[in-house]
Amino acid sequence: MSELLETQNTDVETVLLVGVVLRGDEEWKVKDTMDELAQLAESAGAEVVGRFVCRQPKIKAGHYIGTGKAEEIADWIKENPVSMVVFDDDLTPAQGRNLEKVLETRVLDRTQLILDIFAQRAHTREGSLQVELAQHLYLLPRLRNMWTHLERQQGGIGLRGPGETQLEMDRRRIEDLIKTIKRDLKLVRTRRTEQRRGRRRHGWALVSIVGYTNAGKSTLLNRLSGADIYAEDQLFATLDPTTRQVELPNHEPMLMTDTVGFIQKLPHHLVDSFKATLEEVAEADLIVHVIDALHPQVEMQIEAVHKVLDEIGGLDKPMLYVFNKIDEERGRNAAKRLKAQFSKSAAVSALTGEGIDLLFDELADCLKGRKVELKLSVPLSEGKLLATLQKNASILEQEYEGANAELLVRVSAQIAAQCRPFAVE
């Protein structure tokens, strides 16, 4: 699972990428996913030294690609030695073993590469648990083909009894680990649920930032909140979710959470493993979809994000589209074209700050329906309620008459319910 990690402190890994164009496939889509695979390899710390794209009518059961093409790649590797070959789709264990025999080098598939990057980038306990779960879910169905060379143990001195195979022991061990990790993640999800309830009680708006990986989500959150989240020009630069408080121009606070980025061909079990994190999206009052307006396949990236949002129940949430990277002319022109397709959108440069003021206005407009305006006459003896209003409400007017505080406030529905006994019609 961690083959890249084993050599990360020595020389840089050199990688050959292999993709397949099947009958009926659009070649430009395969080229785009291959470009992304190259970025994934570079994010893992490897150097891409070559690519092969094989055209064939269907996937071959034995070697994924035809044996002739496999031998052609093997000849190329003899002249251009590489550390490993990475395929752009999932391989079965049998295909991986067969390819390693022919190519005489290590063979990985796209999911293994993503899991390796995730293992490098997970720094919190929650992130590490989610990565470990994804790794074991990937490994479990592949055990049978990995241990076909083992025979059932025969009876004899010291061996009498059930005679379990190595496969059965390994499967039981991995299933036990999966149960343990899921139990730990359930505690994480329970804690997150309690945190969200606490935020609701304070009336804070919950906003989730989503988007294709490397679209600029972390950079945007840094710009809006003044935080210092790690942000680099690489895929999955940040894996662990980060929540920061952001104040809108009307002085109302909101909590913004930066979530893990999405990509094409994101394996289903990765989405399943990261449900504890992605629940933040499903529970949000507003989703901010950050889009790299510079990317040549921007529409495909938007579609890929929508697909994952639909899977986690977030596609029906109110959404604000933010077209990033307008500091370059091409990005500015693309943002103008794309804004016409979405009623709620903004164009910004998270790097330079251009358009951020207009984005703040859009955020305030999207969230204004969460607040109600009330005129209150609150006795000064209601100290707890007055403290809650001072901390969590927008106080538009405030006067003191005798033993009462006369207030005009904008508050969330939760706090408004507490204030109703003191409302002035």
Features:
Rossmann fold, 21% strand, disordered N terminus, metal-binding, GTP-binding
**What is the strand tally?**
13
SSE string, helix = H, strand = E? EHEHEHEHHHHEHEEHHEHEHEHEHEEH
* CATH classification, class level of the largest domain: Alpha Beta
CATH architecture annotation of the largest domain: 3-Layer(aba) Sandwich
User: Taking Cα atoms only, what radius of gyration do you get, to the nearest Å?
Assistant: 27 Å
Q: Cα distance, first to last residue?
A: 65 Å
Helix vs. strand class: alpha/beta
Task: Summarize model confidence as the mean pLDDT.
Answer: 81
According to CATH, the homologous superfamily of the largest domain is P-loop containing nucleotide triphosphate hydrolases
Spans with pLDDT under 50 lasting ≥5 residues?
1-10, 147-163
Give the percentage of residues in beta strands. 15-25%
CATH fold field value of the largest domain: Rossmann fold
Helix fraction? 40-55%
For the biggest sheet, the summary is:
6 strands, mixed
**Number of helical runs?**
15
Spatial strand order of the main sheet:
6-7-5-8-9-10
Based on CA inertia axes, which overall geometry fits? elongated
